[in-house]
Write a structure and sequence with these properties.
alpha+beta, Beta-Lactamase, Helix Hairpins, five-stranded mixed β-sheet, 12 helices, cell membrane, HATPase_dom, transferase, transmembrane
């Protein structure tokens, strides 16, 4: 057993034994005075050595406690960092020397198909099944991110890598599906606006060129051309007005909107029915069914515009002789009130219904233009519904007709 392994008690006992041995030897070989001096010197030496060993042990104990405390703080700090990274919507993967997985957050597991319990310690070329990601990491040129497909079907990721230090680098993934969808919608929007304006401008410009070239036109033909130019001008005006309305609705911040007003829905629905009759000019049977007396809290002009859009669409796209019902009902089961416009027209295919509120989306483009629609009406209705805390519902079946509804929740109703 070495001196380092002796307990303090054993060390003291052995020290005292040594002192007694020394005193005994001195007593046998010298006089009493010298023996006493020698015993004192031996005891002082033993005490000094014990104090030294005890202080050395105390210092070692303090150092050990300090090291343990530092390690605990370091571990706690790492845990906090990982907890923060776990809450991020971006995926984060930490690779250590040898390009093996050291850690990843839940978003990375979802984006890239990783499983920390399975892939920790594995090289990235064994973890990823996308050759584009493997090539990007192997090349080591991280100056530009790359776009890759996510393990979630239909999602797109922007993947980038950052060198953290000599032994670690980090891979970050960000879901850009929504951003790409908005970019695509913006491009489609510009293309659709250009297309919608080009046709009436071409008609107007062509007729004006004919007149300016001095081509003789009889009074009847001139009147027909002027009438067509007027129709196309009205069409452009309607398009611009709808674009301005949609832009205004999209740009309004709900926190900065005007305070809600009390909208007398029974009176508003009755007025909309009269507008529908005037627009139909006797081509349809229009019934009104108002059984609720509740008013709603919202923006009067916006709600009237949305409801009028639904009535106008029903009149436009219901064949002559068709029936249209405009109603305002209260549902006691869920305490909601519903404005609905129901027709028995040609109906809409189920695959087209989710896209009806997209700007310029038309089920039948040529037929819609003939009816004078701008392709923005339902997009406006959708945004009005969002701003006024109600829900747009669309039910339709080909050959049987459609029902467009605005459902107002109980907290928007006033009895």
């Amino acid at each position: 057993m070495s001196a380092k392994n002796l307990s303090p008690r054993m060390f003291c006992v052995l020290g005292l034994v040594c002192v007694f041995v020394i005193v005994g030897l001195l007593f046998l070989t010298t006089d009493f005075q010298n023996t006493l001096i020698g015993a004192c010197v031996a005891l002082l030496a033993l005490i000094g050595y014990i104090i030294f060993k005890m202080s050395d042990g105390w210092m070692n104990s303090v150092e050990a406690e300090q090291i343990k405390s530092d390690q605990s703080r370091f571990t706690a700090r790492i845990d906090r960092y990982r907890l923060s990274l776990s809450a991020l919507p971006e995926g984060v993967v930490l690779f250590r020397q040898g390009h093996t997985v050291e850690w990843c957050n839940p978003a990375a597991e979802k984006h890239l198909g990783l499983k920390l319990t399975k892939h920790m310690g594995m090289a990235f070329n064994l973890v990823f099944d996308n050759p584009k990601i493997i090539e990007y990491l192997e090349n080591g040129d991280f100056s530009k991110p790359i776009e890759v497909k996510s393990h979630e079907i239909g999602r797109i990721l922007l993947l980038s890598a950052v060198v953290a230090d000599k032994t670690h680098f980090i891979v970050v993934s960000r879901d850009i599906t929504e951003q790409r969808r908005i970019d695509s919608m913006r491009k489609d929007f510009v293309a659709n606006v250009s297309h919608e304006l080009r046709t009436p401008l071409t008609v107007i410009t062509g007729f004006l060129d004919m007149i300016l070239r001095g081509k003789e036109l009889d009074e009847k033909m001139l009147h027909e051309h002027l009438l067509l130019m007027q129709q196309e001008s009205v069409r452009m005006q309607n398009l611009v007005n709808d674009l301005l309305s949609l832009s205004r609705l999209e740009s309004k911040d709900e926190q900065q909107s005007d305070p809600p007003e009390v909208v007398n829905m029974p009176k508003l629905v009755a007025g909309l029915a009269e507008d529908g009759v005037a627009l139909s000019r006797g081509r349809h049977t229009i019934d009104t069914d108002i059984t609720a007396n509740q008013a709603v809290l919202g923006q009067v002009d916006e709600i009237r515009s949305a409801c009028l859009n639904l009535v106008t669409n029903a009149v436009r796209y219901t064949p002559d002789g068709g029936k249209i019902q405009i109603s305002w009902h209260f549902n006691p089961d869920d305490q909601t009130a519903t404005f609905a416009v129901k027709d028995n027209g040609i109906g809409i295919d189920a695959e087209d219904i989710p896209r009806l509120t997209e700007r310029f989306y038309r089920v039948d483009k040529s037929r819609s233009r003939e009816k004078g629609g701008t392709g923005l009406g339902l997009a406006i209705v959708k945004h009005v519904a969002i701003r006024n805390h109600c829900q747009l519902r669309i039910e339709s079946e080909p050959g049987k007709g459609s029902t467009f509804s605005l459902v107002f929740p109980s907290d928007s109703l006033i009895n």
